[in-house]
């Protein structure tokens, strides 16, 4: 995506039903075909086609205030708890919730043993513990990738130049022209079959750069249950991304 593909606009101010004013981030995007109002764990935002006027966007947002309020309320109810050093009792990993045990240590570190997450905690810094948990999640994700990659790379026309794990706002993965594969770190919280499907999806883009029937045949050959995993993300994806944000 280039700078020309999107244009950040001044925030739009929307008056809610109780009289409060909501600041709504707004941007134009070259791929947008209509005005879209969305709400996720990052908050509400408005996306416009490149030629849509700000006045039209303001009117659209105000006409959908009731829907906007309902989505914000639902998000607040479903918001996951943040990681609390020495307090959090369980954490997600590979589609399960595992018990967490806290002990004093010389460094902040998380290890997995016998189905339990052991936190070695130095001091009472929540931020340091969050960094340690993020490092743990990335190490676990890379261990999974190392186990899966040998099954697929031999049949590819080229190998990925690098695999990057990071938080992604809406996508689960992407492939850059340089061959760098980016994957959402929250995939390690999902069931392993879903994580592996996203890896396969991005690797298949090394064969076909589009989403043509030929591309999906490549995915089907390597991951026959891909439709099941896509349905899983439709149902659970928002919660997975929210959990990672709350914990790390």
Overall outline: flat
Instruction: Supply the CATH class of the largest domain.
Output: Alpha Beta
Number of separate domains: 2
Helical residue percent band: 25-40%
C-alpha end-to-end distance: 27 Å
Topology:
Elements: E1 6-15, E2 21-29, E3 36-40, E4 43-48, H1 54-63, H2 65-78, E5 90-93, E6 96-104, E7 109-113, E8 116-121, H3 126-148, E9 162-166, E10 173-175, E11 180-184, H4 192-204, H5 213-222, H6 226-247
Parallel strand pairs: 2-4, 6-8, 9-11
Antiparallel strand pairs: 1-2, 3-4, 5-6, 7-8, 10-11
Describe the structure.
By secondary structure, this protein is an alpha/beta fold. It has 2 domains: 3-78, no CATH class; 147-247, Zincin-like (2-Layer Sandwich), CATH 3.30.2010. The chain is 37% helix and 27% strand. The protein contains 6 helices and 11 strands. The protein has helices spanning 54-63, 65-78, 126-148, 192-204, 213-222, 226-247, and strands spanning 6-15, 21-29, 36-40, 43-48, 90-93, 96-104, 109-113, 116-121, 162-166, 173-175, 180-184. A 4-stranded mixed beta sheet has the order 1-2-4-3, with helices on one face. Strand 3 and strand 4 form a beta hairpin. The protein is flat. The model has no long low-confidence stretch (mean pLDDT 90).
């Amino acid at each position: 995506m280039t700078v020309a593909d999107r244009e950040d606009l001044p925030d739009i101010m929307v008056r809610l039903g109780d009289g409060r004013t909501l600041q709504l981030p707004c941007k134009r995007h070259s791929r947008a075909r209509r005005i879209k109002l969305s709400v996720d764990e990052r908050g509400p935002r408005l996306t416009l086609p490149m030629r849509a006027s700000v006045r039209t966007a303001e009117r659209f947002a105000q006409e959908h205030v009731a829907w906007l309020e309902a989505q914000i309320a639902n998000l607040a109810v479903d918001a996951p708890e943040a990681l609390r050093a020495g307090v959090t009792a369980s954490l997600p990993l590979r589609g399960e919730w595992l018990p967490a045990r806290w002990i004093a240590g010389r460094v902040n570190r998380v290890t997995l043993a016998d189905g339990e997450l052991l936190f070695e905690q130095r001091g009472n810094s929540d931020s340091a513990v969050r960094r340690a948990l993020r490092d743990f999640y990335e190490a676990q994700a890379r261990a999974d990738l190392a186990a899966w990659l040998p099954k697929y790379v031999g049949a590819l026309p080229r190998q990925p130049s690098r695999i990057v794990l990071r938080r992604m706002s809406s996508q689960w993965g992407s492939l850059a022209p340089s061959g760098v594969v980016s994957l959402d770190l929250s995939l390690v919280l999902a069931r392993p079959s879903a994580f592996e499907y996203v890896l396969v999806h991005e690797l298949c883009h090394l064969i076909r750069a589009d989403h043509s029937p030929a591309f999906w045949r490549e995915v089907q050959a390597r991951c026959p249950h891909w439709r099941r995993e896509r349905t899983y993300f439709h149902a659970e994806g928002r919660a997975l991304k929210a959990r990672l944000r709350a914990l790390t």
